[in-house]
Structure formats: structure tokens, C-alpha cells
Amino acid sequence: MTVLRSTHQPGANPALRELLDDLDQELEKARGGGGEKYVRRHHERGKLLPRERIELLIDRDSAFLELSPLAGWGSEYTVGASVVTGIGVVEGVECVLVANDPTVKGGASNPWTVKKTFRAADIARENRLPLVNLVESGGADLPSQAEIFIPGGRAFRDLTRLSAAGIPTIALVFGNSTAGGAYVPGMCDHVVMVRGRAKVFLGGPPLVKMATGEDADDEELGGAEMHARTSGLADYLADDERDAIRIGRRIVANLNWHKLGPPPGPVSEPRYDAEDLLAIAQTDLRQPVDPREVLARITDGSEFDEFKPDYGTSLVTGWARVHGYPVGVLANARGVLFSAESQKATQFIQLANQSDIPLLFLQNTTGYMVGKEYEQGGIIKHGAQMINAVANSRVPHVTIVLGASYGAGNYGMCGRAYDPRFLFTWPNAKSAVMGPAQLAGVISIVARQAAEARGQHYDDEGDRAMRAMVEQQIEQQSLAKFLTGRLYDDGIIDPRDTRTVLGICLSAIHSGPIEGARGYGVFRM
């Protein structure tokens, strides 16, 4: 392959470091769960925190890629959505892990918990990864039941469909798993319960008393020993939490699990330092970023064979390897997508599908070009070709948002709506239908034209106030923290971790077969 030559001059980017410091503070809040008081109370009861359980479950010194750690950010719910999800290696097998956080309202599920666990189940299904639930939940957060009850049933549907697809599901029950939460162990293939701690029942003693008049205690209704000896719901009875984790690891070891995708080739480190990415990333998104400088720091050996380098030059396409896995890369170079870039992307995506090569999208786009010349030149149909190719591509996609992600460029470059297997964001990234100033300007023009059509005077002072308000609102709603809080990505990552994150994702993807599309719909010509 061709070795990329970097022209980047080492330097600092204080604004990006401030964003990273802010990100660290927000992540610390998520790791703090329900707060010091509830964490201390949990430990005093001899119980482990969700991340402590995960650390014991995964292989020693192996990586854990946490997903959506800031879910619920900016909402009324605790950052992190009272659940920890991610990908970890257990007995050499990559698994999706879902761990309730009992320090947040006893691990009760709120609307963001539901969305976050749905996403984890999707990742398990799409990438053929066993799913391990580390259960301790009081069921639904009752004050928000209207937003949970009806959509929440999908969680149980997902478990049964994973099992039907031959993807193992495991429940390690450390404490309460009540009401709807009882169906998590009820629908998993393998169930471990901790003696004297696990309580699994549809209705607790108060509800049973009200519904039937029967008096019963927790152990009679749903204790671990009862389920191991009487109901048969528990397959294994653990002495304590560490024993449950030991049994869970043995269950995974006995799955006889094998990857179906091709193995990686030899791995070589990039020739350039990932530290440079802190200066390459731009906080002023009007400044262009050469994606080749990024690729030189994330691809094996800093090697990249560029496809059509002299055609459609604002989109860089080509072939590379990351941690030994082949990828086809589509990366925005100067933001705007023209007709040539759209046609180039369409052809490249088809080639990747013919060769069964996953695609990596590096987003930094302001969208498709507008204007009379470009509309008459067919930008709509050429953009539609690219979006058609992305939507109907069958090789796995991974998307990293490096900077701007505006307008239909978000779609053409495989944004969340186009179901990439994984999507991560740099902390400087922003995404919206268009830039704040442009959006406010459009609203202003439309309002002025409407007033003129009615023969009314247009309030210029009110217009300035409106534009300032709209710009501020759109700016706030386009920030990475706002978007990740709503699970529009799988997490904000430090740019220096991009190669590592991609390696974990590509390895997980190859747990399943890699097969491209062999046919497409109608392309408008």
C-alpha cells in the first residue's frame, strides 16, 4: 500500500483540551452513579458496583468499550441512564454486557435506560455477539411508566430473538429483578442467581397481598434458592457475587463460540503519533481538516491506497487496514459534497460490497451543494445515488464524526438513521439540519417574505432578537454532548483513542459473516 506523508506541524489546541476536560467531568458524573451516599450504602451491603462487576467478568487486562456513557445527559435523569453497556472479552469471546446500576433508584429503568439497552441488543444482534446481563433492577421507574411500559416490552422480544438467532443470552442476577425485570432472567438462555441476594418475581409481597390476599415473603416468592430448587428458573446457584461472575465466565467458556468473519491480517502501528490528533481536530468547524492526516494516525503502517484521487476531491476514498482488518474509507476533505463526490462515493461503495469489505465513514461535512448551477447539474439525483448506495450497502459500516455533520450530508455519510454498526463522535463535533447562522437566516428570510406578502411592516429589531435566540438554541442542540445524551451516537471519544475504538469495533463486527450487497435498487441517471 501507499504510505501517507504527513505535513502536519506539531502544535497545541487549547480549545479541544478544554472540551476533553469537560468530557472527563461528565464521564466522572456517570461513573458516580446515584452519588456518594448511595454508592457507599451499596458497598456497605457487601455488593459490587456495575463497573466493578464488569471488571471481574471480563478477561484480565482486556479492554472494555463502554457505549453511550452519557445517555440521558441534559435530561431530568441521572447521566448514564442507570445502566452500563459495552463490549468486553469474556474467556476470549467478545460479548455485549448490560449492567444495571442499583445506586440510581435501585437500578430502575427510565426512558433513557430503555433506549440504551435497546441499542445494546441491536449491537449484539447485528454483530452476532453473546449478550450478558448483570441484573439488579427494581423494574420500571414508576413516575415515568407512560414512556417505558409500552416500548419497554421490546427488551424481552429482543432477548427471545437473539436466542432464536443462535446468539446466547446470559443473566447473572445479583439482587432484585422484579416486575417486568423478572422477564430478563426468564427469557435468557442461561441464568445464575446469588444465594440470599437475588429476588426474581413478577409481584412482590405488597402486590401479592393486594391482588390475592396471600401473605408471602421475598424468599418464598422469588428467592434464589427457591428458583434453583422449586421453580427451576435458576440454572446455577452462586454463593456470592464473585462466585456468580466465576460461573458466568464458565458459561461463556462452554459456549463453543467461533467467529464467522475472516480473521485479521498482520498488524503494524501507524508511523505518526496519535497525540497529533488533538491539534489536527478543529474546534472552529469552518477550518478544513485533511482526512489523510487523520488516516495517517489510525491506519496500519499509515498506509492508504486512494481511489479516484483527482476526481471529486472534496471526498477522499480508498483502501486501508486497521488492526489487520481491511476497510474502505470515505472521508470528507472540504466539507461540501458535489455531484462528482456523490458519484465517486456511489461507485466506491459498490466496489466495497463486491469485495465484502467493511466501510469506514469519517464525517466532516456541511452537506450537499446548493445553488442554481448545482440544482441544474443534477445534485439531487447524484446525492440520491450516494444515499441509495449507503442505504442498501450490506457490508458493515462504522462512522466517526470528526467535525461538522450537517444536512443531508449526515445521511450520505452514514449517520445514525442509516444504521452503521457503530457511530462515535469527537468532542468538537456538531450536527444539525444546517449551521445555526444559516438556519436563523432562513427563518428570518421566510418571516420577512411572509410579512411583505401580507403588506405588513417587518420588525427588524425583533428579527435580530429572534435570530440571536435561534442561533443560540441550534448551537446548543448541535453540540456533541446534547447528541450523545439522546443516543444519536455510541459515545464521544478522545480523538487519540480513535484507532483503538475502531479496532474493537472491527473485531466485534467480524464475529459475524461479512457479506456485501449483490444487487441495488434503481439509480436515477
What does this protein structure show overall?
- This protein is α/β, with parallel strands linked by helices and 525 residues long.
- The protein starts with 13 loop residues before the first helix and ends in a 16-residue tail after the last helix.
- The strands form 3 sheets. Strands 1, 2, 3, 4, 5, 6, 7 and 8 form an 8-stranded mixed sheet that branches. Strands 9, 10, 11, 13, 15, 16 and 17 form a 7-stranded mixed sheet that branches. Strands 12-14 form a two-stranded parallel sheet.
- The chain has helices at residues 14-31, 36-44, 50-57, 111-127, 145-152, 154-164, 183-187, 205-212, 218-222, 224-231, 241-253, 277-280, 291-295, 339-354, 372-376, 379-392, 409-412, 436-453, 460-477, 480-485, 498-509; strands spanning 64-67, 83-90, 93-100, 131-137, 169-178, 190-194, 199-201, 236-238, 305-307, 315-322, 325-332, 336-337, 359-365, 367-368, 397-406, 422-425, 430-432.
- The model has no long low-confidence stretch (mean pLDDT 94).
- Helix 18 (436-453) runs antiparallel to helix 19 (460-477).
- 40% of the residues lie in helices and 18% in strands.
What is the compact description of this entry?
Helices cover 40% and strands 18% of the residues.
Measure the end-to-end span. 33 Å
Q: What multimeric state do the chains show?
A: single chain
Q: Proportion of β residues?
A: 15-25%
Q: What is the number of E strands?
A: 17
Could you name the ranges where pLDDT drops below 50 across 5 or more consecutive residues? none
Q: Which structural class do you get from the secondary structure elements? A: alpha/beta
Largest sheet: 8 strands, mixed
Number of helices: 21
The Rg value, from CA coordinates, equals 25 Å
Helix content: 40-55%
Anisotropy-based shape: globular
Mean pLDDT over the full residue set: 94
